[in-house]
Amino acid sequence: MLTQSLEPVFSPDDLIPPPINNNGLTGRDIISVSQFDRDKLSYIFGRAREMRDMVNCIGGAGLLKGRVLTCLFYEPSTRTSSSFIAAMERLGGSVIPITQGVQFSSISKGETLADTVRTLEQYSDVIVLRHPEEGAAQTAADYAAIPVINAGDGPGEHPTQALLDLFTIREELGRVDSLKVAMVGDLRYGRTVHSLTRLLLQYDVSLRFVSPEILRLPLTIMNQVIDAGLNVRETHDVADVIENADVLYVTRVQKERFNDLAQYEEVRDQYEITPDLMARAKAKMIVMHPLPRVGEIHYAVDQDPRAAYFRQVRNGMYIRMALLAAVLGRA
Ligand code: NCD
Known about the structure:
By secondary structure, the chain is an alpha/beta fold. The protein has 10 helices and 9 strands. The protein has helices at residues 38-58, 79-90, 113-120, 136-143, 159-173, 191-200, 219-227, 261-267, 275-278, 309-327; strands spanning 68-73, 94-98, 126-131, 148-153, 180-184, 206-210, 231-235, 247-250, 286-288. β1, α2 and β2 form a beta-alpha-beta unit.
């Protein structure tokens, strides 16, 4: 017979408070930047600044205690996966990391994306998904009852990267309107370029697109730029844009998207941002890159205060902290 009363398994202090939804993002999937109007952007940026101050003062908080994130990555990643993991852990939550190659999961046995997400949602409160097929994040979201965040769907979109890119521009240069933004490299397959361009349509910016002929921005996105009435020009040469650019957004040629590797070899080394080139740029401008770089920016440029790409990386953690808190109803 039981003589001692058992401790309750939780105290009222442990209960997860009811969600607050003052941002329109609670419980929602994050699939595309088209979900973000300027109100939502300024909301997320405000929360991200608070997260930055909090991390710099005390390192972390317990806002997402008891919550679990699944990081499901079918493509390689360093920054996106680890910044989501850091964001969740700094807010007191925890992570199921399926980021080390899906060969160790049942995906290698032929499990469908639908069954994988319907399984993982039994254990977790939010899924972050990276997948090689355009549209995969939407497919996963159609099956999962919990929020799905798109961390890159093939050459489609990479909305959380675009949010951190826009936040970086705003924090570094103090504004977005009236800036001249030049995007350089693989504009055809670069999903970060696709998402950032779409976000910038909401601002009064001038856009310059610099790429080899075969890597020009897809026509559907170019048409959206034209419909938005923005000042836009395309060129093959960085020298045409370097003097006037406020933001030089450099990208890697996306080798993994090429069917014909000989074509990749033709364009892979087309651009390199060097100190000589930087000598012609404005004193107050920034160089950005979603990373990884594979030769597009010379290492000597890293010493230049205008090189913002590692500050950009850090902003990714604050933006993802803000997004996770919003989606999970805690901001
Ligand atoms: C980018 C990506 O995966 O689309 N990386 C990232 O998330 N920071 C860019 C790239 O791989 O070139």
